[in-house]
Design goal:
There is one protein chain. The protein is 80% helix and 0% strand. By secondary structure, it is mainly alpha-helical. The protein has a single domain (3-116), classed as 23S rRNA-intervening sequence (de novo design (two linked rop proteins)). Helix 1 (3-23) runs antiparallel to helix 4, helix 2 runs antiparallel to helix 3 and helix 3 (57-83) runs antiparallel to helix 4 (89-116). It is elongated and about 50 Å long.
């Protein structure tokens, strides 16, 4: 997958999250989780775009690290919506899988960049 395709993919995921949050029940719990999900889920694409414009390898690594963290956090909030029985798992499973795949692809990108920049002192992702 090239850079533009990944930008498009993260934007589509963000739009899915926007629509999901808008459809959440109007309870305090659902809205609170929704705000958290909206924040991290939409920042994935924004931070990936920023990584693409990184000023140095360290800057790119740092921004990709944020992409990884925010995508993983999105999975957490989606899991919480299911476990709190606010939405059925079947409805969220595809989006959870997409965000998890974005995490895995980001980690793979970090590892590839690290292999190309062996002098980097950035630690390996977990």
């Amino acid at each position: 997958m090239n850079e533009q395709e990944f930008k498009d993919r993260t934007k589509r995921a963000a739009l899915r999250i926007v629509r999901l949050v808008e459809a959440l029940p109007k309870t305090k719990t659902a809205q609170t989780i929704g705000v958290q999900l909206l924040r991290c889920g939409t920042s994935v694409g924004a931070n990936y775009r920023a990584a693409c414009r990184g000023k140095s390898p360290a800057d790119v690594f740092a921004k990709l690290g944020i992409v990884e963290e925010e995508a993983d956090e999105s999975v957490y909030w989606l899991e919480l919506l299911v476990e709190a029985k606010l939405l059925p798992e079947a409805r969220l499973r595809p989006l959870m899988a997409e965000m998890d795949e974005i995490v895995r692809m980001t980690v793979a990108s970090i590892r590839t960049l690290r292999a190309r920049n062996p002098k980097s002192k950035i630690e390996n992702p977990k």
